[in-house]
Design goal:
The chain is of the alpha/beta class. Helix content is 31%, strand content 16%. The longest helix has 19 residues, at 447-465. Mean pLDDT is 92; it is low at 1-7.
């Protein structure tokens, strides 16, 4: 392709170059190279710049997508990055890990007859260009308001909320339970998909604007939400959903069975791949089974391969079409040699006399009618049992909220599933002066949706802080659902 200006060139997007599978499967370096300046301009020129851009409606944080794409097409890369930063505090991160194909790109007009604009690739390009050029002047801040907000959790919801509040003149202090900020961006997503240096730089930029950070601070143990409210004018809870879920099958107590949370946290946050220096090493595996079909399962499988496993197999009870993982992540896993056993449901994990995993027993499945998730329900095939020899099992079937904060805040309502009950538009909880957003409210979702929740809550917090006598006001808290889901 020589130019994106011609109508005939608009049907196919400019591909992003990637490292070869045989070169990358043994290291932790990032897989895609990113666009060059020429590639970015060619891709941006495909845009129709619609008068009523549907792509903006598909973005949870409302980025001016046609605006920044047009600036890239014109070669104004710094201006494009600044345009994104108006609505998105973490553009280099979102450009890498957000599922644009099911959000902003899904509504792109070009997608009706060809490939939609590569919005994620262009967002990544603009953010990376600004960082690599060292062009990072901080926008001016308003006069300090004198109000203080405590933010519990330094994941995408918390960081976005903090950035928005600082930009509105408030003091924002983020409390993080781990020793490093970033939440799931650091402990959950591997280096080959999201380099940790990028997360660190984004956090440092927010810190340079005035965000305060307290690490190794487990709220609910160190201080309760009630105690924070004695010092702060408002509290935002964005602790995510980091507690693991298990299958409930025999053998899950055996040595060599990990939750994906533990496996990825040991690998990413504790640097278990550096076996000689890691404080929390990880099991050296030869044959690994990963249970699940989402992005976390793909991350676990690809990490196991890089940690030295000879064979890694993903077990998923539905078909490829129903897998919730991004198509690109499945593709990369297949390229790297990950094996897939689809329509397969584990029923038992088998061990040896010392209590170590030695095999996993499975059952073949077929698909029936759609269930509540909209996907076809898996149905067991009688007599189809088979066994795979494995020495490690990683369970990646989803997460649930950690109960520490809700359990120490008794007058804040939660659902039966442990999520905090909060208004979806404002983030208000049932407790006065407390907001919440992200996975702790919705259950496991996307980085960008958590950011959208943090952004919305910050704006509502700001509105209440600017009301008369804010320390005396009583926020109109959210209504408890009448569907019997309240705790």
């Amino acid at each position: 392709m020589t130019s994106g200006d011609k109508t005939g060139d608009r049907k196919k997007r400019v591909p992003m170059a990637e490292r070869r599978p045989e070169d990358r499967r043994d290291d932790w370096n990032e897989v895609p190279y990113g666009y060059t300046a020429d590639e970015a301009r060619r891709e941006a020129r495909r845009c129709l710049f619609c008068k009523t851009p549907e792509c903006i409606k598909g973005c949870p944080v409302g980025i001016d997508i046609p605006g920044f794409v047009r600036l890239i097409a014109e070669g104004k890369f710094e201006e494009a990055a600044d345009r994104i930063l108006l609505m998105n505090a973490l553009p280099a991160i979102c450009g890498r890990v957000c599922p644009q194909e099911t959000q902003c790109e899904l509504t792109c007009v070009l997608g009706k007859k060809g490939d939609p604009i590569a919005i994620g690739n262009l967002e990544r390009f603009a953010a990376d260009w600004k960082r690599e050029q060292g062009v990072n002047p901080l926008p001016p801040l308003p006069r300090p308001s004198g109000f203080k907000v405590a933010i519990v959790g330094s994941g995408p919801a918390g960081l976005t909320c903090a950035g928005e509040l600082v930009g509105r003149g408030h003091e924002a202090t983020v409390f993080e339970a781990f020793h490093k900020p970033g939440g799931v961006l650091v402990y959950g997503i591997p280096e080959f998909r999201l380099p940790k240096s990028i997360v660190q730089e984004e956090v440092e930029r927010l810190g340079a604007r005035g965000m305060k950070l307290v690490t190794n601070a487990v709220i609910g143990k160190l201080d309760t939400v009630e105690e924070l409210l004695e010092e702060y004018d408002a509290v935002f809870i964005g602790v995510g959903a980091g507690a693991p879920m298990f299958l409930g099958v025999p053998g899950e107590e055996l040595l060599g069975v990990y939750s994906a949370n533990e496996y990825l946290t040991r690998t990413n946050l504790m640097r278990a791949y550096d076996r000689e220096h890691a404080d929390t090493p990880i099991l050296e595996s030869r044959r690994v089974a990963v249970i699940g079909g989402g992005n976390v399962a793909m991350d676990s499988a690809r990490s196991a391969l890089r940690l030295g496993a000879d064979e890694v197999t993903v077990l998923y009870r539905r078909s490829r079409q129903e897998m919730p993982a991004r198509a690109a992540e499945i593709h990369h896993a297949e390229e790297e040699g990950i094996q897939f056993h689809l329509l397969t449901n584990p029923t038992r994990i088998l061990g040896d006399e010392r209590g170590w995993v030695r095999a996993i027993e499975c059952l073949r499945m077929t698909l029936g009618e759609p269930d509540s998730s909209g996907r076809r329900r898996p149905i067991p095939v009688p007599g189809s049992e088979f066994t795979l020899d494995v020495d490690t099992v990683i369970v990646a079937i989803g997460n649930r909220p950690n109960p520490i904060v809700p359990s120490t805040t008794p007058d804040m309502k939660t659902s039966r599933g442990g999520t905090i009950v909060a208004d979806e538009k404002t983030g208000r909880t049932t407790k006065n002066r407390v907001w919440a957003g992200g996975d702790i409210v919705t259950g496991t979702a996307t980085v960008i949706s958590a950011m959208g929740a943090g952004q919305a809550a910050a704006r509502d917090i700001d509105a209440h802080l600017r009301s008369p006598e804010p320390r005396k006001w009583k926020v109109e808290t959210c209504a408890v659902p009448a569907d019997g889901e309240k705790a």
